[in-house]
Write a structure and sequence with these properties.
Elements (H helix, E strand, L loop, with lengths): L3 E6 L5 H18 L15 E7 L2 E9 L8 E8 L8 H17 L4 E6 L3 H5 L4 E2 L4 E3 L2 E8 L2
Length: 149
């Protein structure tokens, strides 16, 4: 069964979709990664929300920003795949879909991400290059990475 990708503005999300997205983000970023931080950061209202539905459940998600809303370039953030589905390579589909949606919706080629350091090679397979030294974000090692035209 293929994953169904959906992209919506914040105000287009149903209550059920928003709940599933926030639950997934909390499951991974707060519980699984044992990181207490403020996930609800008042940036969701500006973002496009890309999520993957599989068997009636939201199992993959990222939020997309146009240039200037988060970084100088457009950006992809809050990239997450339910741990029960990571063996199916949905993370690769999610990044490919995110890049395509940024190009389609924002007509932009340059993309910045704040990547967890351990995912560097994963993002490199999608054309991102490291553009910063390691830094801590919520006590987790991160690096800035970019795709430039």
């Amino acid at each position: 069964m293929p994953i169904k990708w959906v992209t919506k503005k914040f105000e287009e999300l149903s209550v059920v979709e928003l709940y599933q997205i926030l639950r997934l983000r909390s499951e991974i970023f707060v519980v699984e990664q044992n990181c207490v931080y403020q996930d609800l950061d008042n940036k969701d209202q500006k973002a496009l929300h890309l999520f993957g539905e599989y068997d009636g459940k939201t199992i993959a998600y990222s939020r997309l920003f146009k240039a200037g809303d988060y970084f100088d370039y457009s950006s992809i953030g809050r990239v997450v795949v339910d741990k029960n589905y990571r063996d199916r390579k949905f993370g690769h589909e999610l990044i490919n879909q995110g890049i395509a949606e940024i190009r389609n919706h924002f007509k932009e080629e340059n993309i910045t991400i704040s990547a967890q350091l351990y995912l560097k090679k994963f993002y490199e397979t999608h054309g991102f290059i490291q553009t910063s030294e390691m830094y801590l974000e919520d006590d987790i090692p991160h690096i800035e990475m970019k795709i430039t035209a």
